[in-house]
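Q: What structure does this chain adopt?
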Amino acid sequence: MPYLGRSIYENEFNRPAKLYFLISAARCGYNTYDIHPEKSDISISQRVLRANRAGITLLVTFAYNAFGSGNSFNSVSGLEAYYSALNRHATDSRALTEDIYINIVNNSLQNKGRGVFTLSVGVLDSVFAPSSLIEAGYMTNLREARLMLDPMWQKSIGTAAVMGICEFVREPFVSEGNVAAYPLIKNGSRGNYVKIAQYYLQIYGYNISADGIFGNVTASAIKEFQTDNGLSADGIVGRQTWTKLALPNPSAFVLGIGSKGSPVWYLQNKLLSKLYPVAADGIFGNNTQNAVRAFQAESGLDADGVVGPLTWAALNTLNSPRN
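A:
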């Protein structure tokens, strides 16, 4: 990647998009099973085995596409979705895939659709349930490659895929709503909102599994998250902690040197998605300030290194001065 000095790996999109998908699915009341929770790769045959052993009722796989040799960027871009005619539920696989595809095009930031196609691959052919593969963009297109790192892009695609599932099963979609009104959860709590908190912790890099059980490990992770975000580390997820976990409006925070926590993490990933190299560590230090100043200067803004309304407005577009 130009400017960043490194490659972007497919799982840097697939994993967070999946987690945002799982968050929306849990909010809608669905039971979910993550067939690939590891950060490292596993074989397709292992994924199929896990899916079939779990007895899932449908499968959605997130991926990113490529075109050409991979040695240079090109203009091919857009969303493609796939199902297999060999799946034992081929008709439902097609209907599921079409519903997800239409909802991503209509309700996410990825509004360029290339179509729904058939494909023979294990996660589509051999799973004993309707199955859909989402190729959300092209790694070989510079714009869509850098957007792989954009949390706004990731969240919109994962969430819209759940909208498609709700349409397929004819159940209402539950939007994010007022996160400050989410139920209070603490040690001993169980259920989908515990899973939602655990998935958000995973997004921010905390080492925790999402089992829907609020035990000592989850309490410790929440306390660490609260400390990192300048909150009282009581291990209880209430209004303030939910707001920092779900981060419904990052632009509400004015950020500068010394700021920390999930809003800074979000800022840093937005900068990365616009090809401004910075470590996404949730700490607003000199390197983050320099990246902000460079972005401001190249966007025609006052390069003061402070992220306020005008800088947020520029960051919250999909455009970048660097392509």
